[in-house]
Amino acid sequence: MQTTHELASDRAPTVAFLQWWVLARRLIRPAWRTGEIFTALLAPAVFTLGFYVPLNLVMTVYGHGLSSYAQFLMPMIVMQAVAFCAISAAFRAATDARDGLDVRFATLPMPRWVPFAARIAMAAHRAVIAIGAALVCGAVIGFRFYGSWWHTVGFLAFSLLIATALCCGADLLGSMSASPEATTQILVLPQLIFGMVSTGFAPASQFPGWIQGFARNQPVSQFVDGLRALAGDSTGNAGAVDLATLGPGLAWAFGLLVVGGGLSWRHAARRSA
Amino acid sequence: MTTIPRPAATRHTESLRMLLPQTVIQTRRLLTRWGRDPLTVMQALLFPALLLVMLNAVLGKQVSSFAGADALYGTVPMVSLVGVMSGSLAGAVTLGRERDQGLLSRFWVLPVHRASGLLSRVLAEAVRILVCTLVIFAVGIALGFRFTQGLPAAIALFAIPVLYGLGFATMVTALAVYTAKAALVEFVSLGSSLLMFFSTGFVPLAAYPGWARPIVEHNPLTHAIDTMRGLSLGGPVRDPLLATLAWSLGAIAVFAVPAAIGFRRASRY
Fold first, then answer.
1. What is the pLDDT of residues B206-247, one digit of tens each?
2. What pLDDT band is residue A1 in, cutting at 50, 70 and 90?
3. Residue B12 in domain
4. ipTM score
5. In the predicted model, is pLDDT for residue B137 greater than 60?
6. Which residue in A91, A250, B109, B228 has its CB near the most CB atoms, within 10 A?
7. What is any one of the record's Gene Ontology cellular component terms (chain B) (predicted)?
8. Quick check: A210 and A199 in contact, CB under 8 A?
9. Out of B43, B62, B194, whose CB is closest to A206?
10. What domain range includes position B65?
11. Is A162 a residue whose pLDDT tops 90?
12. Which of A47, A48, A58, A218 has the highest number of chain B CBs within 10 A, making it the mutation to test binding with B?
């Protein structure tokens, strides 16, 4: 009787929360100690330097429709920072799966969502830092928020939502492949296709005709358009903050979150069985 | 009961005369290994090819309009050189792995000429660079890139990535045998992306702000790209060619001895 009682108390929500916190700290602390978190700060800086400096004049001469190329590029700097976090999340999940840590965790008396939730907490923590770094980089090159304060809050919240959703999907891929190197190499592919062929670098109208439809409607463009509208612009051309602009991006992000989270749940269940 | 005769070397095999066939065998081993790893091939061929198509689709029109010439004549050489650099990095990582698995020390006890190990890597690297460059230029031609300077110039053009790549590979190998793998990969990939963003292959020199121009002008990638542009579209060849030669041969001269010593040390690991 005593044993069952103890087992039951192990499953109490507060204990699960503590377990989650312990596992999240296991990921967060070494990242700070080894300076791994430093790369989350460096990635947006390198991206800003690499795309803004060469392209500013070229795109300004050709025309992009906003007051400055910094204003135009900002959502892409955030997306790049977020993509970097997703790749790190995939790497972490794949390392844990390869090392057999997931199987070990599955034998421990804790709810099966705890290791997954801990990894996502780490990813979100990294995303907050990376988005912060992206905003500092943007401010340096001349990006400003022109919308009302709740648009700015919306920008930050939407960025974090996208980050969490992408990290969820990346975590699932990493857990399933259990190969850190292969996963990070494969993930370069979507980053290249969805990142480059989006409205983040140039307006969709400047793409060749055969690819315009894709460039306009794919999820990264929807994210970029939503963020751009929330950031606003002095010219007023950034797009209206309404359901037509934000809806598709929000739908993609929530969809990815639900599907990625659900499949991770199932994956964890199968492993522990 | 039959006894299988033990293979016996009838003569001394660590001779200079046997160096060439031994090198060829080891080169073939490296290339076979490379070709059978789908991820490495994808990274070396598919990613640069895709990057080229993307850059051309997304920014080709704007850069061409700014430069007054087709941006492809900068993008195609640039992407081929970026592919060469990431391939060299993958090669250095493989080298580190073979050291850790003890393969290099296994080879060290074989009765082969000592130089064949390192020579085969150089040769395999050159073949790989040539294959990657040919693929990238084939994609470039499909997109509209043309060799307007005749056949000799076109052939000379393909020597540039080989030269540049061997210089780069010597440097990466020297770094790889002395440093930790993870730090090396991050450091080198970051460095080569920055080289790419600050080269005349990405956008023309005039597009950069004043403070960045000296960096762009003295970037080794810029010289190699300008040489290849001169050999395809036309324009000055001599100065960028001399600069490319200086950078590449300089890198080989500086890093060859540390790389060779490091390789020897790694083999006895």
1. 888 888 888 888 889 999 998 988 888 888 888 888 988 999
2. very low
3. no
4. 0.78
5. yes
6. B228
7. ATP-binding cassette (ABC) transporter complex
8. no
9. B62
10. 18-266
11. yes
12. A58
User: How many helices (H) and strands (E) in chain A?
Assistant: 11, 0
**Interatomic CA distance for residues B164 and B244, integer angstroms:** 7
- Nearest chain B residue to A192 by CA: give it: B51
Which two three-digit tokens encode residue A193? 């296709």
What residues contact residue A245 under an 8 Å CB cut-off, 6+ apart?
A225, A226, A229, A239
* Apex A219 CA angle, A190 and A223, nearest 5: 115
Residue pair B108/B268 in contact by the 8 Å Cβ criterion: yes
Looking at residue A133, its pLDDT comes to 92
Residue with the two structure tokens 């403070």: B211
Out of B57, B63, B193, closest to residue A58 by CB: B63
What's the pTM value of the predicted model, to 2 decimals? 0.83
Domain count for chain B: 1
Q: Which residue has the higher pLDDT, A254 or B61?
A: A254
Asked, for residue B13, whether it belongs to a domain, the answer is no
Spatial contact of A199 and A215, defined as CB atoms under 8 Å apart: yes
The rounded distance, in Å, linking the Cα atoms of B239 and A160 is 50
Q: Give residue A175's pLDDT band: very low, low, confident or very high (50, 70, 90).
A: confident
Is B112 inside any structural domain? yes
Q: Specify burial of residue A184 (Cβ count, 10 A radius: 0-12, 13-18, 19+).
A: middle
| Minimum Cα–Cα distance from B191: chain A residue | A46
